[in-house]
Each structure stands twice: as structure tokens, then as C-alpha cells.
Amino acid sequence: MTKKNKTDQLISGIQLELFNTLPNDANPDKINLSDKNYNGNITSYNKFSNLSDKTESINQSEEIIKIDDINGLTYVRNFISQDEHDILLEKIDSQPWLGDLQRRVQHYGYKYDYVQHKINRDMYIAPLPDWALNIATKLHEHYSETLPDQVIVNEYEPGQGIANHTDCKTCFRDTIISLSLGSECIMDFTHPSLNQTSILLEPRSLIIMQGEARYNWRHGIAKRKSDKFQGQVIKRARRVSLTFRTVIIPDYCP
Ligand SMILES: O=C(O)CCC(=O)C(=O)O
Hints:
Blueprint: E1 2-11, E2 14-23, E3 42-46, E4 63-67, E5 73-77, H1 82-93, E6 105-108, H2 130-142, E7 150-156, E8 162-165, E9 176-182, E10 185-190, E11 197-201, E12 206-209, H3 211-215, E13 218-221, E14 226-229, E15 232-235, E16 239-245
Parallel strand pairs: 2-3
Antiparallel strand pairs: 1-2, 3-4, 4-5, 5-12, 6-7, 7-16, 8-13, 9-12, 9-16, 10-11, 10-13, 14-15
The structure holds 2-oxoglutaric acid.
């Protein structure tokens, strides 16, 4: 059983509309939007609004934020718990890193060719390891129409970033999801004819790109040692991200 709350809040001079559907015994005051991640309009609601039968593994404080200025862009705060975060980072750090890009990376499922922007059966490595498959499955249950079968782990030391880009349209299906670990950082979204938007990515959060956000916008992380956001300087530390995608293999229908 759930009850529906609608609250209008004015935060940092911006009108927010907060829709949250909480279990009857949940305390709406626990939802904290004071550290808003973005300079525009958002619609925010609690995870449990329409997922009542699928909540057993979901962190109670998970919060979904639709970024109204960019169709198809969703930010999910607290997707994993702090314990899950720490275990995941330890697991990743026990795996070998590749140094073939300007930052260290790990590839799972398929190795993506960043130079030629292509993927095919020859690039298949192995099924996702359990720790990645568990997350991919949870993403598929709640946020992605397809089960991600490719993961790239990126490591960003302060000063490192990733150029503005759109993920290869012919290589991957519609939903691209990145899970952040470690440091906060700003991700920029640019469009040929619309204003740039920046989102503060917190550790344990997801950024989900679908539709227009995935195909018509570019996303990137500037090479900086700190970010300025809403008048505050945020020093970067080491950030590790896991980007989940579902590959399109030509001539193959699953
Ligand atoms: O670090 C991130 O969150 C995004 C990574 C990314 O865009 C990519 O690997 O293509």
C-alpha cells in the first residue's frame, strides 16, 4: 500500500515539483533535495511509485530524478548502498586495468574499439562476471528494456575526463547507464541547438541516457581537478564509473 504526496519546493531559486510515492510508514521528510544536482527543472519521485513487487533488493532511499530539459535523461540517487559501493570498488580494483586510453579502463562482455567505433562478435570476451551481471540484472528490471551485456569501467584521477561524445549508435541499443563510484564530478550535456546542461554525479548514483538524451545529445567530463557548481568549488578525487550497454551485433537476433 502506498500513499501519494505532492510538494512544491523552492530550492536555490528554482521551482521544483516533487512527486513522491512512499510506503505508508515512510517519512517524506527523509527525502533531501537540498543538494540539488542540476541548474534546471526536475521532477523527482521515489523509486517505489510503480514497482511495489520488485523492491526487495532496492535501497529505500533510492530516488529517481527526471531531468526535464533533456528528454530521456534520468538521474537516480542512491542506487546502491555505501557497503555495496565499497565492495564493488574493491572488486574492480582487484581486476587488471588496461592502459590503452588516456585513462585506465576495464572491459567486460565485449571489448569496444574506441578508435574505429565498432563492435562485433570477435570482440566478445566472456559473459559479464557475477558482480557486473547482478547490477545489469537490476538495471534491466527497473531502468533498461534490454539486459546490458557490455560494461566499461573508467577510472578518472583528478584532471582526467572524457571528451564530449554520443555513444556509438549502431553498436549499442537505446539505454546507456553509468554508475558512479568514488568522487563526485560534473558531467556536461551538449546539443547542437540547445543550451548546455551540467549534472553533478554523486557516488552511488546512476545517470541514464535514453532516446533524445542518448542519440541527440553529447555527454562528457571536462579534464579538471575541481568543478564549480552552483557557486561552490568541488575538488575532484578519484572517480570510477561503470557504463552498462547492450550491444547490437549485426546479423544476430537474440
Ligand atoms: O564516466 C562516465 O560516467 C561516462 C563514461 C562514458 O561516457 C563512456 O565510457 O563512454
